[in-house]
Design a protein that fits this description.
193 residues, four-stranded antiparallel β-sheet, globular, mainly beta
Amino acid sequence: DLKLLAIDGASGDWFGRSIAINNGIIAVGAMRDDDNGTDSGSAYLFDATTGTQIAKLLPSDGATDDWFGISIAINNDIVAVAAVGDDDNGTDSGSAYLFDATTGTQIAKLLPSDGAAGDAFGTSIAINNGIVAVGAYLDNDNGTYSGSAYLFDASNGDQIAKLLPSDGAAYDEFGWSIAINNGIVAVGAWGDV
């Protein structure tokens, strides 16, 4: 029985807001860590056997209120970490990053081709067999907050597809949750009625 603690953990970091495990490595998000500004966020990697901290992950362009670490996933030595408050495509448009789980090195930054302010891209994230799935539950393609999801190639960060439900409607919030396994993507739309 192990208890994981960040070496530099501090009050209000929200360490444990997100967590994932694969191949003996545990990835933990701390979305309100302040290393790159207030609530910029961070993530940590731990050895699942010993509980030893392996690395601390910080995005190369982290900034105040990015909330990097709000969602996290790991598969085959690639860690995917979202920053729902990132502003590259407008305020709170969101982004995600890929890291090498062995070295902690940033591999790529993921941005949707049509990202817009308020989309909340990165609310949910999953990775399996080289495909990263990312939810943007406040996207407006099918009406206000109808939501969407995206698929990316984990090897180079290229966008593969945008997912929209055939019956998408306002306030469905499609993309609130997401999972991927063996080529099948499951996307939650908790506001659908």
